[in-house]
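Job type: complex structure
Entries:
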Amino acid sequence: MVTKVAKTRPRTEAHDEKRALIIEGCATLFDKVGYHNTSMQMVADEVGLGKPTLYHYFPSKIAILYAIHDTHITSLLRSLESLKGKDPAVVLQAACADILRQIATHPGYVRAFMDNYHDLEGEMKDSIRTARRTYFNMIKDVIIEGTEKGQFRETDPLLTAYAFLGMGNWAYKWYPAMAAERTPEEVALALCTPFLDGLKAK
Amino acid sequence: MVTKVAKTRPRTEAHDEKRALIIEGCATLFDKVGYHNTSMQMVADEVGLGKPTLYHYFPSKIAILYAIHDTHITSLLRSLESLKGKDPAVVLQAACADILRQIATHPGYVRAFMDNYHDLEGEMKDSIRTARRTYFNMIKDVIIEGTEKGQFRETDPLLTAYAFLGMGNWAYKWYPAMAAERTPEEVALALCTPFLDGLKAK
DNA sequence: TATTGACAACCGACCGGTCGGTCGGTCAAA
DNA sequence: TTTGACCGACCGACCGGTCGGTTGTCAATA
């Protein structure tokens, strides 16, 4: 029988595409009416499938919510990772622009990520919590680095990180309404300039 | 018949107290599990009443959500109103402390206010939207005033107001966990200092 | 090359359970 | 005897998820 070469069927090719399609449809609805007001039937209609077919691609509604969380936080982490080594102030402003870009291009992902984290359960919640913590600590470490280099004034880095991320994260409430007129980079500059100037050591 | 003194029955006295009790029980549950995961039966059990009795005090679940929104925003508005005339930077920091105080003392109110505004309907939503706008515009006007007085640098007051409120509002996600160790005033100082310093004109 | 059979994709109909809300009534106070 | 406070039992709607089955396609076989 030698080696088990060809694995039964394609599986990955079209399958993963449909999965992505379902996630996208879900995100659209989550953006419009929120997670709890979105039924699986609505998702099925949005994607053009029967409701039972959704369960060929995801084991449960929460699993889709998890996929959305995972996609979003993975994207943010990868982006922040690629900024390593740059100047602390530059990293912070770029991270802020990242968040705004996600809000502009994937509002449903961000809304679910912000409002429905507590609806995750078990291992899914653990996994996302870990990723969230990693992201937060990376931001906090950038602030600590800036302080140690003498570029930032002495602050409580925990609270400063919360303040900084609050500015950016909160934008999911208002930025979608003006995303057509203002680029993420432009808005990130306006948001970060006073904050970063105040943070800079005299 | 003279003046219509005693109105049929007590009505107001104990009635309003029970209403407040129901609101408080609701807020406790909203804080713990969120609006959508709180059933009217859970509220009834929390308050020690039968479920139908709740409907003697509120016409619907949404009406309780509205009462919570109304209580919260009214409190914030009254507080901000009382700061009129003071120095812009002082007003902003005090407003930030107000928000943090509300988060510490009424976390359920704040969580519902942040996460479930879109679940309000009709006139209730209109009314809260108006109050939210009023509050936001008052903050924006304080920023404009600071700029006109030459105390703040020139900025886009809209985005600056969003940035400032984002810092404070976002705290409902993390401040409850440390509210026992850090006072609202203390945290408001840490949050506002870099931001306000950066905002101040050179 | 034709046959076959295994499996992915798909779904109409249905199920158990829960939810917001109501009905019809009891009871105590005044 | 009126009226507010109260609630056990109930209802219709809807939701997440499943069942049982059909179809289309492709790889192995003969």
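Summary: The CA atoms of residues 75 and 102 of chain B lie 9 Å apart. The domain at 10-58 of chain B is CATH 1.10.10.60 (Arc Repressor Mutant, subunit A).
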